[in-house]
Amino acid sequence: MLIIQLTGLSGAGKTTISSYVKEKLAERSIKVEIVDGDVYRKTLCADLGFSRQDRCENIRRLAKAALAFGDTCDTAIIAAINPFEEVRKELRENYSIKTVWINCAVDILIERDTKGLYKRALLPEDHPDKLHNLTGINDSYDKPLHWDLIINTGSETIEASANVLCKFILENIKNAHQARS
After folding, report:
1. Is residue 129 part of a domain?
2. How confident is the model over 43-53, as pLDDT tens digits?
């Protein structure tokens, strides 16, 4: 099974691209499972906060959830901000998980702001609705040092971005089958 960890700031398109890829690959009888960080935050990771330690543990749990799909799917996609290079490296080294950087400039994300998070993060410090832990604004995000694929959603449509990821997955599945033969 191929496991991919998407990394990128909030609103970059991780969940949207994953959903599109799952649908497109299903047309080719390739089963994809999505381990979405927002969804799993409400269940498997509900006990975690947003400290560095908790964010790292969150990603480790998401990786274990993705690994659990090993017998039931061809590819698992972890769609989460995944802000720290040390954990991305850990997953790559321990589980051979591929890293895909969903890159989008902060100014474009602020403009899109689909969840209203950037607006809240940019409020004055004393504002009661201020969001103090938005990754990339007032909480750290390590730009990936090592990635297997970079997708620039600031300059590509979601469809074009998803098609790039589909092609990447298909190539990796093909290579894995050839290696076994």
Report:
1. no
2. 999 999 989 99
Would 170 be classed as within a structural domain? yes
Q: In the β-sheet with 75-79, what is the strand arrangement from edge to edge?
A: 32-36, 75-79, 2-7, 98-103, 149-152
Round to whole Å and give the CA distance between 131 and 127.
Answer: 9
- Domain at 46, CATH number: 3.40.50.300
**138 inside domain:** no
- Is 77 a residue whose pLDDT tops 70? yes
**Quick one: DSSP state of residue 78?**
E
Structural domains of the chain, count: 1
Which residues, other chains included, contact 148 with Cβ-Cβ below 8 Å and sequence gap of 6+? 98, 99, 100, 168
**How does the average pLDDT of the chain come out, rounded?**
94
pTM of structure: 0.93
* Cα(181)–Cα(174) distance, integer angstroms: 11
First to last CA, the chain: 15
